[in-house]
TrEMBL record:
Gene3D superfamilies: Resolvase, N-terminal catalytic domain. It comes from Saccharolobus caldissimus. GO terms for molecular function: DNA binding; DNA strand exchange activity. This is Uncharacterized protein. It comes from the Archaea.
Length: 50
């Protein structure tokens, strides 16, 4: 869906819940397709979403 530009934001609890390794690659793919990758383990991002 990211590659088809069907989503603009992906919200995950922790980076390791998405992939065990290669999280940086997923981040770069999201950047290339204008998709924001939000990790809820960062409390400041949670506050922005609320």
């Amino acid at each position: 869906m990211i590659l088809n530009n069907e989503v603009s934001k992906v919200i995950i609890a922790y980076p390791d819940r998405l992939v065990r390794f290669g999280f940086e690659i997923i981040e770069e793919i999201c950047k290339a397709h204008n998709c924001e990758l939000v990790t809820l383990s960062d409390l400041s991002k949670i506050e922005k979403l609320l």
